Amino acid sequence: MPQTIWQKLDRWMRLSTPFVLGLMLAIVAVLPWPLPGAPPVTPALPLAVVYYWTLQRDDVLPPPAVFLLGLTQDMLGGAPVGLNALVLLLASALVQMRRGPLARQPFIVTWWGYAVLAALAETTLWAFGSLYFFVPLAPQPFVVQYLLGVCLYPPLSLLFAGLQHVVVGRA
Q: Would the pTM of this model clear 0.90, i.e. be above it?
């Protein structure tokens, strides 16, 4: 039985939920995060989106969507245009390579995987940012962003899992 236009639209909207959520989290990430004694930070919330959805349902966040998330994060956060896009594309490719064995692991292992990926991502952002500005950037904001991202991944993954079960999973 052929699908109606409304069924196709419903499916498209369900499958675009991870991308829209990534855009919303990119906006949330650039809001002020007043952490006492910490430098101003922009947590890598889109990285959590890319990691989770590439691990669980790689079909709902293809490379062009990952690129747009990174580009949005660059433009909103004032980073060199393309830097976060490159990092998110590399992160997506790394997760895609290890997806099979990692997706079947308990949460603590996938969290550890996110922590390793986030460390690589923040180090890459720091290195390329330093090259771009021709001066070594202070590492403290990147360390705080890393720690904040690792601490926020468990509640974010619960949100993503709920959306996967209720919204995306039926598409």
A: yes
